[in-house]
Design a protein that fits this description.
By secondary structure, the chain is an alpha+beta fold. The protein is 44% helix and 14% strand. The two termini are 34 Å apart. Flavin mononucleotide (FMN) binds next to β3.
């Protein structure tokens, strides 16, 4: 399916087939594709928790204001942003340096740039975590849709309660939940979007 068709098909889905599951390989494929999203400085400052068991689905549902699509989705990804990603930038860049896909001189300037801007700016670190996790979430959704799954993005959850329930370290900010599963009823038709002229300035 081409991108235009995927974008037209994707609508937030709620009525998953609770009898369907996804295997580990599929979950890994989805996250591998999601990680093709770009991130500032190539930080790759995201982390994914794939919630698949009834026990963990129940726990997640409770901290997501009882949104029951979590219970029937085959998997819900807790897509997190790493607010301390700058500390791990050298390790994140090394494989690209080794493979010759990132020149050392550029990597050095990335590391200098981030060390000048991130350590003393928690707001920027949080913003960057949200940007990266959001881009990855969108790629995750489109990849899942391209494989025939339905998906749903969710920010309706209690951040602190989720962090506690899943024992997340402080630096991991849960940014988005993405439900993925098999459809029972057809997807809703796509909702209308506002006129492009209301949302675009061309300078
Ligand atoms: C950041 C974000 C958070 C959302 N949170 C929720 C949510 O907590 N619960 C829910 O039912 N839908 C949630 N949605 C789904 C939106 O309501 C839905 O994407 C929007 O109405 C547009 O419809 P469409 O996705 O079908 O095009 C969320 C969507 C986004 C992008």
């Amino acid at each position: 399916m081409n991108l235009a068709a995927l974008l037209n098909q994707r609508t937030a889905y709620y009525d998953y087939d609770a009898n369907e599951s996804v295997d580990r390989q599929t979950i890994e494929q989805l996250v591998t594709e999601a990680m093709k999203a770009p991130s500032a400085y190539h930080l790759q400052n995201w982390y994914f928790i794939a919630v698949t068991t009834p026990e963990h689905k129940n726990k997640l549902c409770q901290v997501a204001y009882e949104q029951r699509q979590i219970l029937s989705a085959a998997v819900t990804f807790i897509v997190c942003g790493d607010m301390d990603g700058y500390k791990r930038l050298p390790a994140a860049l090394q494989p690209s340096i080794d493979m010759g896909t990132l020149p050392q001189i550029l990597a050095t300037s990335f590391i200098e740039g981030i060390n000048n801007s991130h350590p003393n700016n928690p707001q920027l670190r949080r913003d960057e975590a949200i940007r990266s996790a959001s881009l990855a979430s969108m790629v995750l959704m489109l990849t899942a849709e391209s494989k025939g799954f339905a998906t749903g993005p969710m920010s309706g959850f209690d951040i602190t309660a989720l962090q506690e329930a899943f024992d997340l370290p402080e630096y991991l900010l849960p940014v988005m939940l993405v439900t993925v599963g098999t459809t029972t009823v057809p997807r809703f038709p796509s909702k209308q979007r506002l006129p492009v002229v209301d949302k675009l300035t061309i300078l």
